[in-house]
Design brief:
This protein has a single domain, classed as 3-Layer(aba) Sandwich (Rossmann fold). The protein contains 7 helices and 11 strands. 30% of the residues lie in helices and 20% in strands.
Length: 259
């Protein structure tokens, strides 16, 4: 493991995805323990992507967390996919974490049965829920174009007045879904999604960001070494008071570090 410190942000680099995922799960567990000493209930949001596989698998195996005091949320969701579609982010999180541990509650951007609701109504519903349950921990990733959640460079706003919004997906993000094996071709990938905004993510007391893989190395470099700009939305993480970034050898290949 190598550690790179940038102000209040810790960047931890590991030889493999497996060691990275386990380390991120250990850190998240320690954050839970700290938060549960402070609050009766803790609210946590999770990203849904293959990049989160190792982290969520490790986290779901932790036994000594008071899961019954934790409310779970998810970060973003496609618009237009039926509830049965395996590509829905809710399906991914059900499989990887929501159905594996006994959360107090699980809250979806688009709950089953509400797919036909106008997206604007779904945005309002989820935003009100997040106001009622402010985030304590955000478990996120970084996209190939530097997005966090679905805050694409084309729509990212560091001062967004909303917690949740509808976005049009960049072609690079849609192609990433094909590259990840989630869809057979880009025509199958939805063009719009509902996402937490950057201020919603940054409002969380703690952030655990897990970013493995060769295809993420340029986004990681821009996040850590480039200017803080919406051209790389993830760069805003450098402004957070408690952000932990977990990388594997491939995603960290363009940055330095120390033992």
């Amino acid at each position: 493991m190598r550690l790179l410190k940038q102000r209040s942000m810790k960047v931890l680099m590991y030889e493999s995805r497996e060691s990275m995922g386990w380390a991120a799960a250990v850190t998240a567990t320690k954050i839970f323990e700290k938060l549960l000493q402070k609050y009766n209930e803790v609210n946590v949001v999770f990203a849904a992507a293959p990049s989160q596989d190792e982290f969520l698998d490790a986290l779901s195996k932790v036994k000594d967390v008071e899961w019954h005091r934790i409310n779970a949320f998810h970060l973003d969701e496609y618009i237009g996919l039926p509830s049965s579609a395996p590509q829905r982010f809710s399906k991914y999180l059900d499989k990887r974490i929501f159905e594996r541990v006994p959360f107090k509650s699980v809250n979806y951007v688009i709950p089953a049965g509400l797919e036909s609701e106008p997206p604007e109504k779904l945005v309002t519903r989820y935003e009100e829920l997040l106001k009622e349950y402010p985030l304590h921990l955000a478990c996120i990733g970084i996209g190939e174009n530097g997005h966090i959640a679905f805050n694409e460079p084309s729509v990212a706003d560091f001062n967004d007045p909303h917690l949740v919004k509808i976005v049009k997906l960049d072609e690079k993000s849609r192609q990433q879904q094909v590259n990840d094996g989630c869809f057979e071709n880009i025509e199958q990938v939805p063009t719009h999604a509902i996402t937490l905004t950057i201020p919603a993510i940054m409002s969380s007391e703690h952030i655990v960001c897990v970013v493995p893989g060769e295809r993420k190395k340029e986004a990681v470099f821009k996040t850590l070494e480039g200017p803080v700009t919406t051209e790389c939305p993830a760069s805003v993480l450098r402004r957070h008071p408690s952000a932990n970034i977990f990388l594997d050898k491939k995603s960290a290949s363009l940055i330095g570090g120390e033992e």
